[in-house]
Design a protein that fits this description.
Helix content: over 70%
Membrane topology: Multi-pass membrane protein
Protein name: Multisubunit sodium/proton antiporter, MrpD subunit
Largest sheet: 2 strands, antiparallel
Number of strands: 2
GO molecular function, one term: NADH dehydrogenase (ubiquinone) activity
Keywords: Cell membrane, Membrane, Transmembrane, Transmembrane helix
Radius of gyration: 21 Å
Oligomer: single chain
GO cellular component, one term: plasma membrane
Length: 495
């Protein structure tokens, strides 16, 4: 049973909430708590959408009453619905963190409306069935993220926002070139229609150009080395509530695109794309792990850690078997939960330091005043490294099993080294902040950011690790549908 309104609600609710929030800009508390209510409502709608997709099958909304491929389609299969729920859940905790933090920027009149437009853009990217509207939603995401970083309390926030905006503008140019090339070649931008036409005739002159441009766009979005150069500065100086979103769920835009390219949009080129992704993933695992080990700043360490963790996901997509893709999906969701939690813990600890900074030199000894933060950081770090009973263990175990089934020993060796790096940099951070004594007397600030949001995320990772079977089965079903592009195409085009 297809009910298109449930596909629209996760996009419309935060967008409408942002508009109302602007009208309430002079009533800060009403705006803040009203925005939290909006994002929780969007999360509830996303969960309901996931339930409908699981029960009745994928849901499609053809906007304006125009049938595909002439109109604009929004499509929710299990993969898209899982990504939307993941995004809305993590964004909800970002709102909770922002409400309990001491950052001055959270009292800026447009802070919460921008947060809601960030949610709109992110959700739209996952649900859109049209390449040009992928560009529209991605631009909304970029503008929201850049503006939220520009109003950061950190004086370097404006510089980082400019850097992010300009690099994203360059990436968007590649997306527009891809869209133009595909439209010239096939006369459509509907993704299901494009998939069918590319599968029927992949030899058009501009098809390879379009595929290459799309790969560059998604690599920049997911901060894959060597396209990562904007990411550490941007995530280090962003407000904690924002950087926790950017480094966890926003980078999944690129991962989602690469996943769709290899299973739906460019199936004739999947073998070459997957071989490339395995190499890019291994480079990210090693480079990201080594740079995280050497970082002297907790947020910068976690930003470089993202390069390594995304590398694990790319290897899973590159292997391309049902088990490997399931491992990638489980890994994507675990990383989103844990990376946002760890960044929130780092920000909350920095808010207690005499000089607010997440540099290890400023945080040394501060951890003894936040024992709950230390316990949560340790559990989150174990999840990042893949230690039981967290969901991180489930994702890495599933990835290991898929690699063993393929007999790819060299790649598995690289992933093992990356896991070891994760243990090293997480242990080093814990030692510097919560174990080593302070150098001299410390007078921590009273209050500090609250730890409710990261506690919720870490608890969720533990629940998904201990009670993993239903979640893994859900991801297996999503992958089974994903590997059947003909069914997706028929659903959207009405065949």
């Amino acid at each position: 049973m297809n009910q298109p309104q449930w596909v629209l609600l996760p996009v419309i609710i935060p967008l409408a909430g942002a508009a109302v929030g602007l009208l309430l800009r002079h009533q800060r508390r009403v705006q803040a708590y009203g925005s939290l209510g909006v994002i929780l409502t969007a999360l509830a709608a996303s969960l309901f959408l996931l339930g409908r997709v699981y029960t009745y099958g994928p849901q499609v909304a053809q906007l304006g009453g125009w049938a595909a491929p002439y109109g604009i389609s929004l499509t929710a299969d299990l993969t898209a619905a899982l990504f939307v729920v993941m995004a809305q859940a993590v964004l909800s905790t970002g709102f909770i963190y922002a409400l309990g933090c001491n950052d001055r920027c959270s009292r800026f009149p447009t802070f919460y409306p921008l947060f809601l437009t960030l949610s709109t853009g992110l959700t739209g990217v996952f649900l859109t069935g049209d390449l040009f509207n992928l560009f529209v939603f991605a631009e909304l995401l970029v503008i929201s993220g850049a503006a939220l970083t520009a109003i950061s309390d950190d004086p370097l926030g404006l510089e980082a926002a400019y850097k992010y905006f300009l690099i994203s503008l360059l990436a968007s140019l590649f997306l527009l070139v891809a869209a133009g090339s595909l439209y010239v070649s096939y006369g459509t931008l509907n993704l299901a229609d494009l998939s069918a036409r590319i599968a029927a005739d992949p030899t058009r002159p501009l098809t390879g150009v379009a595929a290459a441009c799309l790969v560059v766009f998604f690599l920049v979005k997911s901060a894959v080395a060597p396209f990562h150069f904007w990411q550490p500065d941007f995530h280090t100086v962003s407000p904690t509530a924002v950087s926790a979103m950017l480094s966890s769920v926003v980078v999944k835009v690129g991962v989602y695109g690469l996943l769709r390219m290899t299973t739906l949009w460019f199936v004739p080129f999947a073998a070459e794309l997957r071989a490339f992704l395995i190499v890019a993933g291994l480079v990210g695992v090693i480079f990201g792990g080594l740079t995280a080990v050497g970082a002297q700043h907790a947020k910068r360490m976690l930003a470089y850690s993202t390069l390594g963790q995304i590398g694990f996901i790319l290897v899973g997509i590159g292997w391309g078997t049902p088990l490997a893709l399931t491992a990638a999906l489980v890994y994507i969701i675990n990383h989103s939960l844990i990376k946002s939690a760890l960044l929130m813990i780092a920000g909350a600890t920095a808010s207690r330091a005499p000089v607010k900074s997440a540099a290890f030199s400023a945080l040394r000894g501060v951890g003894k005043f936040t024992p709950l933060g230390g316990a949560l950081f340790l559990l989150g770090g174990l999840a990042l490294a893949g230690i039981p009973p967290t969901n991180g263990f489930i994702s890495k175990l599933t990835l290991l099993r898929s690699g063993l089934a393929l007999g790819d020993g060299w790649t598995l060796a690289g992933l093992a080294a990356g896991s070891l790096f994760s243990l090293v940099y997480v242990g080093r951070a814990y030692r510097n902040i919560w174990w080593l004594p302070a150098q001299g007397e410390i007078k921590p600030k009273a209050g500090g950011d609250r730890l409710l949001a990261p506690a919720v995320l870490v608890t969720l990772s533990l629940v998904l690790g201990i009670w993993a079977e239903p979640f893994v089965n859900l991801c297996l079903q999503a992958v089974a549908w994903m590997l059947n592009p003909a069914a997706y195409i028929a659903l959207v085009l009405g065949g």
